[in-house]
Amino acid sequence: MTSKHLLVAGHIVIDSVIREEGQTETLLGGPPCYAGLAAKNLGANVTLVTKFGVDFPEEYYLWLVRNQLKFASSSRSLTQPTTRFRIMLHRDKRILFLVKQCEELSPDQIKGLEAAGMLVSPVAGEISMKFLEEAANRFPVIYLDPQGFLRSFGKDGRCVLKRQSFDALKFAQILKVDEDEAYAYTGMNNMVNALKVLARSGPEIVIGTRGSKPILLLHKKHIYQIPVRQVNDIVDTTGTGDIFAGAFMAEFLREKDPVWAACLAGTMASSGVNKVGLAKITRRGTVVKEAETLHKKVTEVKA
User: Fold this and answer.
1) β-strands 222-226, 45-49: how paired?
2) Domain locations in the chain as residue ranges
3) More confident residue, 286 or 65
4) Which of 147, 148, 158 is nearest to 182 (CA)?
5) Which residue from 138, 142, 154, 59 is spatially nearest to 98, judged by alpha carbons?
6) Are 14 and 82 in contact (CB under 8 A)?
7) 117 vs 138: CA distance, rounded Å
8) What is the domain class of 5-301 according to CATH?
9) How confident is the model at residue 91 (pLDDT cuts 50, 70, 90)?
10) pTM, whole model, 2 decimals?
11) Distance from CA of residue 38 to its chain's centroid?
């Protein structure tokens, strides 16, 4: 298995998860952790381009290093705390509150780095257009999860999605959105039509995830419907989009087949939702056979 160097850009976060039963758990998270570990488990060589504060527990940092994740320069902020979220789970709803926010990533952090691609996934406005443009000029493949560009936070920190321009999309070769994000960008409830509109802004591959419904993937004017495994005992979905992103990029950089990469990534993202936090990240050997079965069931959407 050939190792490809992948960069993951976004804030490491510390989540306080409050469950309906009143339980509260403090969990390490954020795209660098979920996506980084998923990609590493699929054989990628991963460097995290991130920011965290002096309040970030040393045991968390050492745990990530022991799990073979490298850090780009200047990852520790000396002026701002680590980004923290409060996540309230109520039945099938997930309400997100921003509690603390670290500083923006700096383009200087990626100077001198070489990689086959970068996964860009802001969570709270930490990635600027200047950073994104620098990344697009330096690395051949940019995968963008635009969640952090679409989020707005009220006075109490509550997160809502807001309409946003398409400016960031021109820097990405691969774009992944869920149904809410697709609607925030396009105002369309029809995911197939939304993917077409988003593709006009520049991405060569546009992926639409829809929870338990099949994934839609647009590539070279073809739209594929990719089955997802059905899960009944869902405990925690936090980070599943990031797991998908990390798994997709690791597999795509190796195989150059977006449909297969989405099959594997979707299976990996859903396979651990009966576990909590980073424990839900599985390894390639546990999901590849099921992904192969789903790959045989991929169909093309006539649209």
Assistant:
1) unpaired
2) 5-301
3) 65
4) 147
5) 154
6) yes
7) 9
8) alpha beta
9) low
10) 0.95
11) 10
Mean pLDDT within 211-228: 95
- What is the bridge-based pairing of β-strands 159-161 and 151-153? antiparallel
Is it the case that residue 82 has pLDDT exceeding 70? Answer: yes
| Range scoring the smallest mean pLDDT among 28-42, 140-154, 234-248 | 234-248
- Asked if residue 140 lies in contact with residue 175, where contact means CB atoms within 8 angstroms, the answer is no
For residue 284, name the pLDDT band (cuts at 50, 70, 90). Answer: confident
pLDDT grade for 303, boundaries at 50, 70 and 90:
low
Distances (CA, A) of 113 to 3, 72, 185: 16, 8, 32
